[in-house]
Description:
The protein is mainly α.
Amino acid sequence: MERGTEMAAVLPVEIARNCNRCGRGFWAEGPARVCPACRPLKVRKSIDITRPLSFREKQVVALVAQGKLNKEIAYTLCLTEATVKDYMHRILRKTGTPNRTALAVWACRQEAERAQQP
């Protein structure tokens, strides 16, 4: 390259647009065609933490208690790693544990309590 022809960093530019739904003007960065007031809210599906663990979630917990990684759990249960990760998030929310180590401890305690029951 010749001297002085270096390209400057391209910064995102806000563009004035009209909303396709309500017609109001708004400033947007990128391909937005609808103003923020007209955009639907992203609603996350809530997980009912009062429900017991499903059969598959129990399988995942048992493998976590054995010290398996997500990749190993996925291989064992014929799932993808993303599915195992999703299960882990659900399980952690349902059990109230902050991480997989605490989940393994929780699982061991649950097993010990079941063993003590007559």
